[in-house]
Design goal:
Blueprint: H1 11-15, H2 23-37, H3 46-62, H4 65-79, H5 97-104, H6 121-129, E1 169-175, H7 177-182, E2 184-190, E3 193-199, E4 208-211, E5 227-233, E6 240-242, E7 245-252, H8 254-259, E8 261-266, E9 272-277, E10 286-289, E11 303-309, H9 317-329, H10 337-343
Parallel strand pairs: 1-5, 7-11
Antiparallel strand pairs: 2-3, 4-5, 6-7, 8-9, 10-11
Length: 345
């Protein structure tokens, strides 16, 4: 995403959250919208597909504390902070954009803004990021890593000294859950360049991948920057990722949990696997199926099945009589006795 887009896009409105929303609220809003707008749920709906991309872009920025802080600062400048207004008769006057930033650049460098070309926010933030105070890093209002006349590192008045590496560029990509578990290749547009990135199998939601040497070229003979790619994974209605393991919750009946049984459980590849539920299995116990998780470069994970005892909402007369008989047979057994004993310690 180009930095100057931040002036025009309200990412909070895109996700439907207030500007002071915490990280949990932002993630919850993103997950809800991602499920609702995912292309698999809206086949052929180009409007939903575009909205899905906008939601992923907004979450990529607001979920990253550093990017969110920069975004808020930029939006404040654009809408409520410093005003980049032209002076009388359309010329840059006192208090205008050029005067504001010419002071920051020591008075000799002019940062120009025009409605035709637009503000290059990346250049602006890159310059501000190198600002140094008075002292060892430059003179008052100067820039650079080492002291030099005029506050610039070893370059004389108004100059830059030494090589500087190009800046890193943030980017984001949203993958369907199944694609994230299998690994994928995604295409990114960075400025006017197309970049291909390999996403490893089992990538977690929110993971950051560094693409070396594909960021901003160096302005002064240094190494190019990197692309910092934030990956967002669309939630699956059944499975969740836990490292290389896959987790799911499976309902079991009271009789299956009490007496034991073999049940069929779905796997991510669409097949079924038969699992033995031991007699006396409590709700919440995790059963493991080896090797049916995600195959990563390092290992293949397992399928972790959490059993959840399903309680019927209604009972036939015979079923109710059987439950009553069971209650009579187990009178005197208190499943909460140990709980109270532990609570009193």
């Amino acid at each position: 995403m180009a930095g100057q887009d931040w002036f025009e896009k309200d990412f909070y409105a895109t996700l439907g959250v207030p500007k002071d929303a915490d990280a949990a609220a932002i993630k919850k809003a993103y997950r809800r919208l991602a499920r609702q707008l995912h292309p698999d749920a809206n086949p052929g709906d180009t409007a939903s597909e575009e909205r899905f991309k906008d939601v992923g872009e907004a979450y990529a920025v607001l979920s990253d504390p550093e990017q969110r802080q920069q975004y808020d600062a930029v939006r404040a400048m654009a809408g409520g902070g410093a005003r980049f207004a032209a002076g009388p008769n359309g010329a840059g006057g006192a208090g205008g954009f050029e005067d504001l930033f010419s002071g920051m650049f020591g008075g000799g460098t002019r940062v120009r803004y025009s409605s035709g070309g637009g503000l290059n926010l990346d250049d602006l933030l890159g310059g501000l990021g190198g600002m140094g105070g008075a002292g060892a890093h430059g003179g008052a209002g100067g820039f650079g890593r080492t002291a030099g006349p005029g506050g610039f590192g070893g370059g004389g008045a108004g100059g830059f000294g030494g090589s500087r590496n190009g800046r890193d560029i943030p980017a984001s990509a949203t993958l369907p859950f199944r694609q994230a578990t299998q690994g994928s290749t995604v295409s990114l547009t960075v400025g006017d360049r197309a970049v291909t990135a390999r996403i490893p199998a089992g990538v977690a939601d929110g993971a950051k991948i560094r693409i070396k040497g594909k960021g901003e070229p160096s302005p002064a003979g240094g190494a190019p920057g990197d692309i910092i790619l934030t990956v967002h994974v669309t939630p699956h209605p059944v499975f969740t990722l836990d490292g290389a393991n896959l987790r799911l919750t499976v309902p079991v009946t009271f009789s299956e949990a009490t007496l034991g049984a073999r049940i069929d459980v779905p796997t991510l590849d669409g097949a079924k696997v038969s699992v033995r539920v031991p007699a006396g299995t409590p709700s919440g116990r995790v059963l493991r199926v080896k090797g049916r998780g995600v195959a990563t470069a390092k290992r293949t994970g397992d399928l972790l099945i959490t059993g959840q005892v399903a309680v019927p909402a209604t009972l036939t007369g015979e079923a109710k009589a059987a439950v009553d008989a069971f209650r009579e047979d187990t009178t005197g057994t208190d499943p909460r006795a140990d709980l109270f004993r532990q609570a009193a310690t």
